[in-house]
Amino acid sequence: MTFEFEELDYQQTPLGDISLRRRSEPRLDGKILYEVKLGDEFLMSSLFTEAEIQLARLGLAELEGSELDVVVGGLGLGYTAVAALEHPSVRSLAVIEVMQPVINWHRQGLVPLGKELVSDPRCTLIHADFFAAAASPATGFDGSTTNRLVHAVLLDIDHSPSHWLNPGNSAFYTPQGLRNLADKLHPGGVFGLWSNDPPDADFTRLLDSVFQSSETHNVTFPNPYRGEESANTVYLAHKA
After folding, report:
1. Beta partners for residue 161, in sequence order
2. Strand, coil or helix: what is 149?
3. Is the CB of residue 173 less than 8 Å from the CB of residue 212?
4. Is the model's pLDDT at 1 over the cut of 50?
5. Distance between CA 210 and CA 113 in Å, rounded?
6. pLDDT tens profile 33-45
7. Closest CA to 80 of 57, 110, 63
8. Of the candidates 55, 99, 94, the residue with the CA atom closest to the CA atom of residue 76
9. 94-104 pLDDT tens trace
10. What DSSP line would sit under 180-213, residue for residue?
11. With CB atoms counted within 10 Å of each terminal CB, which end of the chain scores lower, N or C?
């Protein structure tokens, strides 16, 4: 019998019911896909990962130094985290994920990149609220009581700066929220953000008001369902 669909996990969380599915896609010659849903909303798919990968590659490309400490906000299927670990200068990677089931998927090997992340001694998966950690002036992303600075923060949680998974996340996308984040970066550090929407000029101006400079990257990728290319946005902001 040809494999078609399997629900690998289903859990209730404070943000809603989350599920991990594995299925074959007949329109792609039976390609196996992994998908995550929160309630009735699709959060991510292993078919569309180029922008998540580029978030890490673009965000780390201009950093100097041989011992970089990096934070990824949002674990998902792990593509941003794995791409960050491919950078030869990354010394440590802390991945902050608010949903424990997502961390469990990786530790249990239910997703393709899980074993690679869990087995890398540089990588730590942390069950915590990224936005609470970013807002706290007294603690680091790793939960320590000192505000340990990092060289890059790469964020892929909300759909865009104005389309949030949780309304409480909105406070991050404000001048004070971004200043709190900038205070956790070393001088010359980088903040990178994935967005499903086209570049937002208002958000770019907001980044420029907090950081020394910012830029946007339009990341395109094939969309076989539409028969054309789709695009996501990667924002990069540089601390002076």
Report:
1. none
2. coil
3. no
4. no
5. 35
6. 999 999 988 899 9
7. 57
8. 99
9. 999 999 999 99
10. HHHTTEEEEEEEEEEESSPP-HHHHHHHHHHSSE
11. N
pLDDT at 130 over 90: yes
Count of residues making up the chain: 240
Beta-strand ranges (E) seen in the chain are 5-13, 16-25, 31-38, 41-45, 68-73, 90-97, 123-127, 150-155, 185-195, 213-223, 228-238
Residue keyed to tokens 């530790």: 107
Q: Where are the domains positioned within the chain?
A: 5-44, 49-238
Residue that is written with structure tokens 């054309």 in the block:
228
Question: Which pair of tokens denotes residue 164?
Answer: 């949030």
In sequence order, what are the residues at sequence separation of 6 or more whose Cβ sits closer than 8 angstroms to the Cβ of residue 1? none
